[in-house]
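During the reporting period the student researcher (J.K.) took over the structure-prediction task from the postdoctoral fellow and processed the backlog of single-chain submissions. One of the processed entries is reproduced below for the supervisory committee.
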Amino acid sequence: PSRHKVVGKKKNRLTVKLTCLGASLLAMYIVFVYFILMTFEKRDGDGGGGGSTGTASLSNNLRTNHADTISSSQQQQADAAQPKEKKTPTVQDFCGMCQWRDQPFNCNERVEWVVNTKGQTQDDAIATNLKYCVHPDGCDGSKVNDEGFLECQEISDVFVPTIRDFCGMCQWKGQPFNCNERVDWVVNQKRQTEEEAKKTNLKYCYNANGCNDKVDDDGYMPCVDPTVLDPLSNKPPSYTTGTAKHVPKEPELEAFLTGELLKRASTYDIPISRKRHGGVVKKDVDEEGLRDRRSGEDIIASVLSAAKYGDRQYDDDEEEELSDGNNHNILDPSSEGGGRTEDMPVLTAHCEPVNQTTWETKPLPPRDGPSTKRSLFEVPYPRVRSCRALPSQWPIDTPPVDLDPFLPWIHDAFPSPDGKSVVFVAQNRRRCFNGQRYLRRGEIPPKGVQPHKNLIHIDYSKNYFMRPQPALFQHVPVKRIPSERPGEDAEPRYRLASHEDADEDGMETRFICRFKSFDPDADPKVSIVGYSLSKHTVDYDYHTYRKGYKYSTTEAGYDNHMIWQSQLLFECPVPPGLQEKVKRGDTVENDYANLYVDVIPIRTAPRYTPPREFLQPRYDFHNE
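J.K. obtained the following structure tokens:
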């Protein structure tokens, strides 16, 4: 019995201990809950100007917090139901500590590599990589991972056009049909689905206003290539600023292509000397076989020297007397009383600083006549003073083309036997700067220079500067603009046009020919007697197409094998009232002409597209 009493006491003690422990835990829980509720009450009281304590206050707080929780949950559901407004990232959102596309380097290192390797500016490199380098919580204050990177997700709200952005009313690549017609043709001819055809042609069929713009006179909507949109905006940039970013190039190449060399030449005097020939210049390792080593202002000085003292640029000996066998120097017709007199016009080249970087603007900006006229830089050739000695006096070795590549590199000019036209024989000056060399191992091409099969041009600056030369081999259709001052003295004006809209004599031309007559007894002595539009003796684009070549010329300039693009032959039709006079030879007196022609190039960028895409209607060729 005593043993049973001891066991009973032990059970009672155990029950008491469990009861005490449970009561203690309950008390601690109540204190904990009370403390939490008081904290929320105090916070609400501070925010609302005061609060109360007690059971009622706690109950109110619980109901209020519960209501806030329900309201917050409902708001989140409402926010989720509504589409969020897209926020286009800007350069200010760029975070250099982001890991670039799971690679072992950050965005700062990526931008630095793009700047050094691809020749982009820092802003362009940031814009290109922006979608991988934006942290949702901001770059400041975010913690990096163990590898030292911020974990950034690729942003998908940077503008990327889809098939839903396809606009069928866009004009397809400047052709006389819209994008809907192009898609129909692709579906029927190439057996693609409509969706595939739209996706393939989307870059030519995007309208920034959702295909809601007004159509032009030809029935097309204004459209832009979405791949050249500003990466920091969903709107296409203004045409006045260009639809393509300017790619920085080597300083010397930049000076050539922007026309800065000629602009500087017209603002201050460049010293020129009587004797400026090639000379002995120490060869660079990359200049083997390069004869013309002129650069910068030396090019301008050499052209001006040749104009003033004679075009003997590459002669190594002093100028020699050239005789016709009768003790008459054919370079100085005045020795026998012939040639140009002081009051007669002087052969003059009007050079225009060509800024080829404006070709990155599409459509091309309109030419401003007054400002263009003010920018012209005259290079007179007083030593050209004889029709008989014209081939030897013509500026060929150091031509004005070296300053203005839109001028034809003329070697000879003569009237046709029937007197109906003046024939010009010119050459493609760009071919003179097509020498190439291999890139050395590990060598990076200069900024803006395009290699070809591990080759680059030795004199790439002059080669790229001469890109307008092949454009002279390509025809352009033009249409006359009605003059604001109608009359015989009104100077005609022209605009670029389609083949269908062009004038009959402007269907395939490249130069405006302005004829002038000299009369020593008239006032003024020189007067304009007519205009005409040039004609190519050979259709170079059609010839290229028939030979099976894809392009007539290339931007990079590796096309010397196309030998038919070497010699440029074109004619300026003589005004009908002067043709008989030209035929009889009455336009030449005392070995100098009294009838002159100004050859004015129509300055458009060369077409790097297949020539079959712009053949004249007379070939009845359908580009399909």
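The committee noted the following: Residues 145 and 151 are 7 Å apart (CA to CA).
J.K. will present the remaining backlog at the next meeting.
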